[in-house]
Amino acid sequence: MHCPFCRHSDSRVIDSRTSDDGLSIRRRRQCPECGGRFSTIETASLNVIKRSGVIEPFSREKVMSGVRKACQGRPVTEGDLAVLAQTVEEAVRQTGASQVDTNEIGLAILGPLRELDEVAYLRFASVYQAFDSLEDFESAIEQLRIDHPREA
Predict the structure, then answer these.
(1) Residue 89 CA, distance from chain mean position
(2) 25: CB partners within 8 A, 6+ apart
(3) Where does residue 7 fall: left (phi above 0), alpha (psi -120 to 50 degrees), or beta otherwise?
(4) Which InterPro entries did the record assign (predicted)?
(5) Treating both helix axes as pointing N-terminal to C-terminal, what angle do 78-93 and 60-70 enclose, rounded to 10 degrees?
(6) I need a surface site. Which of 63, 146, 148, 150 has the fewest CB within 10 A?
(7) Helix (H) or strand (E) holding 125
(8) CA end-to-end span of the chain, whole Å?
(9) For 52-78, what is each residue's pLDDT tens digit?
(10) Which positions ≥6 away from 88 have C-beta within 8 Å?
(11) What's the whole-model pTM score?
């Protein structure tokens, strides 16, 4: 780690603490050359392999953006979307893989979105799972009815 003050190529870790969410580590460092102190935040990298083969860093904002479209006109807040994105990231990180396919991220979105809003779930699933007939919708709706019967 280069010192941000004198650009010396080394630094010494003085203190390390885990962040509140447990996904990153905050390290307090000191430069042996100039004595300057600075903090760094370290996270484990998580990359997404897109269908085109391009690899890019995982982004909660992209998860939120994709789900936001399915939630248009529904009673879903930005806070709800942020919690969903965090849940998806945690689920994907729990696999232990440093690279995941977009398909795995889509699967990780379906469960939490279904709990959040069933209409948004159907919208997202219809695009993600490429529904191409009314029967696809009917079967998804029937599965929702089986899993969550309405109280009379």
Answers:
(1) 3
(2) 16, 17, 18, 19, 41, 42, 43
(3) left
(4) ATP-cone_dom, NrdR-like_N, RNR_NrdR-like
(5) 130
(6) 150
(7) helix 118-128
(8) 63
(9) 999 999 999 999 999 999 999 999 999
(10) 60, 63, 105, 108, 109, 112
(11) 0.69
